């Protein structure tokens, strides 16, 4: 999907930026070039465009690799005690950790995703009026953290129907799921809850044993501040470009999963603040105020980081050619949306890794894509030690597997 230039400059006047400077700019904005102090980890979460929390331990490690001295317990405390972090459903309908005070920016900013879900449900015969009626009832009910079971029971009373159980499809099998029958239509409570979370009606509350809870944001978040959808969309674009620029409108569409038309409209509203740059023959855009920083960006090499599953640095652009060679792509971006933990060297993926912790001993196995220099190997081992401290391991052992046949440096 193309988008017209947002500058009146001729192609000759568009500044050329090296891929090395682009990588340095993004690494710095993600706090990967230099770790931030532990006191700033909530701000780091916002600067990186949110930490994907589909796997909570991965989100914690994403913050740990960007923050000096952070512990997983610090993240838990920020979520459930201080409430300075919020666990929300936003970009691509996926779970993220974001600063609580930015809840509306990240959730309202991708309202186009909720619109897409509503149209999908309507095409499958679901009444939007009935869905909205249930969502409004849910909003009233969530005045304190409730489990899904508690929410189902209270919803049934609120909309004048009894909860019923029906068979639904789980991961490769059928499972019993809570449902409500309203005006002759059977609605999955889980499906409506997911839609409500994407709409910003519900936010994750503190876990209760193995069960998740949900609560109304205005009740749970101490710095709750709602803003209009347009204000949120515009601010989210600026946040995106600060972290992932230079980028295109196609990248922004892919990152948010709003419709292409919505992304173009948001982009158009802020075009006076954008400037085009030429990166290896590809025209992308960055915030005009960030251009001087981009033109001077540099890092001390080699810069090595161990990024966990689903790290946000790997999720900013539709085309991943700047991150990983095509022949290694499927080892990183795996089926069903899974992203491997990666060894990042100067902003490019040079291998994958996995870890296991037993009796406070952390074992890390690195699978490089090619030859590893002694200096890079030393930096990997240092990062392994940092990960061990984050996970509060007493000892760390890092092993390197031999590159697979056919891999080149």
Q: Summarize model confidence as the mean pLDDT.
A: 90
What general form does the structure show?
A: globular
Q: How many β strands by DSSP?
A: 18
Distance between the termini: 33 Å
Q: What can be said about the biggest beta sheet? A: 5 strands, mixed
Major sheet strand order: 14-15-16-17-18
The computed structural class is: alpha+beta
**What fraction, in percent, of the residue positions are helical?**
25-40%
Residues in β-strands, percent:
15-25%
Rg, alpha carbons: 23 Å
Number of helices: 16
Residue windows where pLDDT falls under 50 for at least 5 positions: 1-6
What does this structure look like?
Among the domains are: 112-220, no CATH class; 320-400, no CATH class. The longest helix has 17 residues, at 374-390. It has a five-stranded mixed beta sheet with strand order 14-15-16-17-18. It has a three-stranded antiparallel beta sheet with strand order 2-5-4. A three-stranded antiparallel beta sheet has the order 6-11-10. It is globular and about 70 Å long. A hairpin with a 4-residue loop joins β7 (163-169) and β8. The protein has helices at residues 19-29, 41-47, 56-64, 72-80, 103-108, 111-123, 128-141, 148-158, 189-199, 217-220, 229-244, 249-256, 260-269, 291-296, 329-332, 374-390, and strands at residues 36-37, 51-52, 67-68, 85-89, 95-99, 146-147, 163-169, 174-182, 185-188, 203-208, 211-215, 274-279, 282-287, 304-307, 342-345, 348-358, 361-368, 395-400. With 409 residues, the chain is α+β, with helices and mostly antiparallel strands. The chain contains 16 helices and 18 strands.
């Amino acid at each position: 999907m193309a988008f017209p230039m947002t500058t009146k400059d001729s192609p000759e006047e568009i500044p050329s930026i090296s891929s090395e400077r682009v990588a340095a700019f993004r690494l710095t904005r993600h706090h990967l070039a230099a770790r931030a102090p532990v006191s700033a980890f909530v701000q780091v979460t916002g600067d990186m465009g949110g930490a994907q929390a589909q796997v909570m331990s991965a989100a914690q490690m994403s913050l740990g690799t960007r923050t000096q001295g952070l512990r997983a317990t610090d993240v838990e405390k920020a979520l459930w005690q201080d409430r300075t972090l919020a666990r929300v459903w936003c970009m691509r309908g996926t779970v993220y950790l974001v600063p609580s005070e930015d809840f509306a920016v990240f959730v309202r900013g991708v309202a186009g995703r909720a619109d897409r879900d509503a149209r999908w449900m309507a095409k499958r015969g679901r009444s939007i009026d009935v869905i909205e009626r249930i969502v409004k009832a849910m909003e009233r009910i969530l005045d304190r953290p409730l489990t899904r079971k508690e929410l189902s029971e209270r919803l049934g009373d609120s909309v004048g129907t009894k909860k019923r159980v029906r068979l639904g499809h789980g991961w490769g099998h059928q499972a019993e799921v809570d449902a409500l029958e309203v005006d002759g239509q059977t609605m999955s409570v889980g499906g409506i809850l997911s839609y409500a979370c994407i709409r910003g009606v519900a936010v994750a509350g503190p876990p209760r044993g193995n069960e998740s809870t949900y609560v109304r944001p205005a009740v749970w978040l101490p710095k709750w501040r709602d803003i209009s959808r347009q204000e949120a969309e515009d601010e989210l674009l600026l946040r995106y470009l600060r972290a992932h620029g230079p980028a295109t409108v196609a990248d922004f569409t892919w990152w948010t999963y709003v419709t292409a038309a919505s992304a173009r409209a948001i982009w158009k509203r802020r075009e006076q603040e954008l400037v085009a740059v030429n990166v290896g023959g590809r025209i992308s855009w960055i915030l005009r105020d960030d251009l001087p920083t981009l033109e001077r960006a540099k890092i001390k090499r080699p810069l090595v980081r161990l990024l966990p599953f689903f790290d946000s640095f790997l999720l900013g652009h539709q085309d991943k050619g700047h991150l990983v060679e095509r022949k290694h792509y499927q080892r990183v971006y795996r089926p069903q949306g899974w992203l491997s933990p990666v060894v990042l060297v100067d902003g490019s993926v040079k291998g994958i890794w996995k870890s296991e912790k037993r009796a406070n001993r952390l074992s890390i196995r690195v699978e490089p894509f090619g030859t590893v220099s002694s200096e890079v190997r030393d930096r990997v081992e240092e990062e392994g030690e940092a990960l061990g401290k984050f996970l509060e391991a007493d000892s760390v052992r890092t092993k390197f597997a031999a590159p697979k046949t056919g891999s080149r440096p």
